[in-house]
Amino acid sequence: MKGRFFKHYLLLASLALLSLFSSVTLAAYIPTVLVSGNPIHIEHFYAGYFIDPTGEMSFEEVKDQSFTASSNKLSLGIKAHFTWVKIKLQNTNKHPIKLYLHHPQTYHNRSLSLYEVTRGKLIRTRLLDSDDKATHQWMYRGIGIFDIELQPQELRTLYVKSETFSHQWLSLFLYDEEQSKRALQDSFSDIALMVGMLLALVVYNILLFFSSRRKESLFYACYLVSSSIWIALSYGLLANWFGIYGSVALYWQLTLMGMPIFLILFMINVFETKTKYPLEHWALCLMMALLSIEFVYGIFNIRGALLYSSSLAALMMVVTTSVGISLQIKKNPIARYFLFGHMLFVAFSGLAVLFYKGIAEFSYLASHGVGVGVMLESLVLATIIAYRVKLLESMKANQEELKLLAATDPMTQLYNRRYFNTEADFQLELAKQSKQPLSIAVLDIDFFKRVNDNYGHAVGDQVIIQVAKSLKELCRTKDIVARFGGEEFVVLLPNTAADDAFNIIENIRRSLGEMVMQVEGKNNLTFTISAGVSAVAQRQNGIEKALAFADDALYEAKNSGRNRSCLYHDE
């Protein structure tokens, strides 16, 4: 029994040692990149990496270390400030070749060094310091480029030292001269497209803010600006176009902290959380306070702030998503649109956070996750703003319609007495300021009771409507016409003296007297009106006295046989 147990134990120990030996062997083994043919365009190959925890190890010490096998694209997180990459090359051609080693992410590095070893001897060393212009001959628009010459069948080992400010992520490519030029031409075109679309949305929303004065449009534009700057900075567009890299570019990373601050301000305004959703409002305000503290901290210690940026970004995603879900549960009409767009942002940005922390493998979506997420969310938020503008315009139109209904007579669509009195007082103040005359007229349909008795109330209503329509057509555009009730109408004539007003009203009276209305089954109907006209004295504080004078003139017209106009004369 003991013998069997011993054999079983020995077998397990042997398997464990074999597994350990295999893993060490695999970790230490780095395949050689065989360079042959023409053109040379090598963007996928095996390499190895080693992280120097102190950053003080010499090249001689590093080259004897065990390198972990990897691809030529790495994301190692915030604890790999000093990373060495080992590449084995062999020229299998029968002629010498010249290669160009590209490091497209050099713009966010502190420094980049290349050590070339042949037959165990160090034959060439180069240092690219992002803050030292004397070393920038190895940099082209933010991309590190080293030329390498290989003789026929020569085997060479490259050691690339990458020193980063915060997160360590890099990719290395090998090209011949022609392919190197093409790679440089194609660089950052996708980022330029992203930034261009975001800036177009910025211009649109700034114009929208000036036209509507809605704060959410302004905050959304600020969010887009900070996003555009951060995307252009983080993905090398600012380095490529304006030469912004190294320590100078480091403080531009503050825009990363500005993005979520403006997004939260946008949420507070577009959802009106302060007045409608107090619990969600306090959650957003607390998150914004934390982001603001990090922003201020970043002004004094940007490197320290960047160490917490990924974790704080993850917390921000949790808070904003939770608020969106809460508002959806509470049936906010635009919450589901925001939630859809924000979930796209969270998904891609979450992948990017994992990438920056060295958890997710290097890929385009992982390395560009924040940019892709911002683009998708920005398009959805633009839709939300458009929908909200449409909603507000609809509400405004409904309010205007309600105001119009409150100000007009439902039968004739003329202004009612309440609106007329308000507008008349306003016109009186204007007349006082401009020292222009103002007149008023009262019109009444003659013998209207007979029309109702002989033809019925339906025909009587048609007569009132016809008079109202004629007054609209015959009065000037600046005149204010109202129905005061029954068969009585009032006209206010701005910038018009009493005599001129009398002539205008007299012409209207004659035109109405010549009208003939067709009445089914009965004789054609004609009718007349009487009118009284009065000047509005500028010394008056209201329109009531002038209206009473116009009424007196109307009674005079009635008592004088009707179908006439009379002008009130102040004795």
TrEMBL record:
Residues 1-27 form the signal peptide. It is an enzyme of class 2 (transferase). Pfam families: 7TMR-DISM_7TM, 7TMR-DISMED2, GGDEF. Residues 436-570 form the GGDEF domain. SMART domains: GGDEF. InterPro entries: 7TMR_DISM_rcpt_extracell_dom1 (IPR011623), 7TMR_DISM_rcpt_extracell_dom2 (IPR011622), Diguanylate_Cyclase (IPR050469), GGDEF_dom (IPR000160), Nucleotide_cyclase (IPR029787), Rev_trsase/Diguanyl_cyclase (IPR043128). Its cofactor is Mg(2+). The chain crosses the membrane at residues 191-210, 217-238, 250-270, 282-300, 306-325, 337-356, 362-387. PROSITE patterns: GGDEF. It catalyses: 2 GTP = 3',3'-c-di-GMP + 2 diphosphate. GO terms for molecular function: diguanylate cyclase activity. Keywords: Membrane, Signal, Transmembrane, Transmembrane helix. Its EC number is 2.7.7.65. The keyword Membrane applies. The keyword Methyltransferase does not apply. SUPFAM superfamilies: Nucleotide cyclase. This is diguanylate cyclase.
